[in-house]
């Protein structure tokens, strides 16, 4: 054994040897020359080395073939057989195939891939990519971090940025750069460069602090300052170069960080283990949520206050619908206006009337024995919602929709605030179900908004303590004997709503009688715009007359809210012993008075304090005495005008709900905002109206906002004008469940109550169908609504004697002394400031402030609502 010569390649003496004759052909192919084997006759090669020689031969053959193929690809155009898909600038959606079809077998086999196959496949990928234009590449490696600035991405949410003209690097420039980096050191900088290189080389033999990158050092040590000290010790020349290169314009901290970063990059290029600085910046990028996606700049403008108040177009929508509603009242109670019936539509047109007339399918949820006044109960209620939603969708085979599903949740003010707060408590949960992401958004409902608005109206205008003030709600209540109107709107909503509408109709009809010179409701109206043959005119002519008359009526009794309304003051002028009266606008506590003297237009400015006492001004040689006219106060006149503005809101809201008009509903909610603020600065529904408009017109996408607004209505029976508020229908369902629970008697347990609430819809359908089969009528034990025609005639007769629409100076009301004609007698700056702070708070889900009247929605109070 020991006499065997060692292997020619590895030099080891192994048991199994291959004689030289067995590898002659392989060696000749390897060296591509004829070998004289007589010179190496006493030589052997082991089997292991023979296999290595064969493998190297195969590598050489395949690499040669790949190189030839590469030259062919670069010289010839790319065909469809060579590429799976050629990406273009517009069509670059598919990624280029990373593996040729000929090599897919290596991906399917579980064995280890041979090295030669990997090399050949890499050459094929290189050939494919080099044949494409660089601009047409469809994608980049998923592992490459791209710090693109986003300028090349055409997104609507990307800010426009100036484009920079970057000159392309030519081959000549590349060669020049390569020559600069590879050339020998110039004699001018030879000494300093050699010194820096020598110091860095010696530093590589020492233990640099950048090699010690343990977590404790990164957390507690000042690595930047330590790098400066190390450079001063081991490579001061480099430190001096960097210090002088940076200059002294930046602060010391910034220069220290910059020099330490450059130092870390230099050492890392010489030794990859010197990565302390790199780890610091990696942690910084991770902490700042850096990603390998392009950086885009999103526009996030703050909502303007203008979207929360009606603009000119929305005020026009409000006025046009108010004309129709008031015209219907004239047609109903005054025979002299029957000609309007031909021009008044049965239903006010709106964009979604076809969708809103469809029959709604409403399902009643089982009762949840939890109290929404506490966050614990709200979380349990919302957990129940999530459980039911996920169970239903899975059973229906629609589980894939759960990832993007969002269902709006509506309710009163307490429900909206409590549910929003409970959802915030789960904001840090791990899954969508635990975070309640499927319950979004949470908004106020229309019936509760109208109910609270009616309650604010009642508190302002109905003072039951004194009913002696003629023409007020308390006085008229006694006149028509409305004993069920007691100021508790939540327990007697229908009674208070009907009473307010009855009084509002009466006020308006009394105004029409005064304007059209009518003695009673049955008298014939007279007006300069009304021809005697009005009934014989065609519909277009009637429409023009109707528009002109109602435009005049609206201009006299409707008071819109204007944030920039010019303030005016009435003045009395005495010129050459002749008295005149005029109005002047106010600007910074100064009255601006336009005058026309001898055909010349003159404008004079007088401070308001001087006008109160009266002052003398000389204008072009003419002496003028100016004094402010202190107009008297008519409380009843102002009371009626103020009340009508609230009455118009209720009239509009009821009709918009019946029609399912989503556009007009938002306009009315915007109009309500200053009314709620006039009642209280801390009004709860002032906040809720802003929240509803913020979500439906700013925060939510348009299609989601439309779904939320449409979900505020239900149409149980189907048809035009038969919608009602969704929360009103829910209140009726609650009454049904309460009646069934009462029938349990002494068997009221939690289990039986929940079971009864689940069976309530079926029981109601069975009993309703039974009544239909037997043709039984629905008998009611009490009046829900009394006839209003007789009451209106009684009220109009009373109001005509009071002469409401002529100003009577110093006519006072005991409980309404100093009441304003407009409901907007508040500081506009304070109003806008409160709106802005409320919007800011709602955008960040901060808790709301409590209302000053401690008005809570109590579910224990029985309501008298009906379908």
UniProtKB/TrEMBL annotation:
Instruction: Locate the compositionally biased regions of type Basic and acidic residues.
Output: 143-157
Q: Where is the composition biased (Acidic residues)?
A: 848-867
Q: Which Pfam families match?
A: DUF6589 (PF20231)
**Could you name the domain of life of the organism this protein comes from?**
Eukaryota
Q: Which organism is it from?
A: Mytilus galloprovincialis
InterPro entries listed in its UniProt record: DUF6589
**Region of interest called Disordered, as start-end residue ranges on this chain:** 78-102, 143-164, 847-867
Biased region (Polar residues) positions are 78-90
User: What name goes with this protein?
Assistant: DUF6589 domain-containing protein
Q: DUF6589 domain location, by residue?
A: 301-783
